Amino acid sequence: MTGTDPRTERPGADAPPEDYRLLVPRDWFRVDLTLDRWRPQLKTFADRQAARRRMSAQAARGLWATLRNTAESGAAQGAIELFLRSEIDDTGATPATLLVSLLPMSGALYVTPQDLARSVAEHRGAGTKATVTELPAGEAVRATTATTLDLYVAMPGRSGYLLLAFNVPLSGVESPLGGLCEAIAASLRWV
Fold it and tell me: CA 94 to CA 84: how far, in whole Å?
């Protein structure tokens, strides 16, 4: 069918989705933050990276602490998955991370993407650019700084947002790795 939007053609397009699909490269390590065993998963990743890079004990502890703090903070704020790019530089910094969070907002709590973009821009202040954009999965708020890309993707049925929070501290958002983050976000599909 030409000229139709596949999102409106699927049955129940206005109903909240049951799940989502996201294509993430195989070299990104996934940690499921909804399970109690996420700490051992994350520790395994940190230990492997420290051994591969032959990091000092202090650098390895710093890597573990940084990753643990990121995961704990994310989980406390509704994060459900953490993806880590397997490469670590000599300082222990990962070149990219993706934190996926569910932000339920139904009924009177729902905020339109335009209002959310204004709120994000005000809350984060100068240095953050927040715009409304269209992704294959739907309307989204795109908030960027030099090293972060956050996409708040509106879920069908006005049930809230799925936040894809990318952090690209080494190369920045305006790099090939930043382009990969954009491609990951564009792969989001509702199921």
Answer: 7
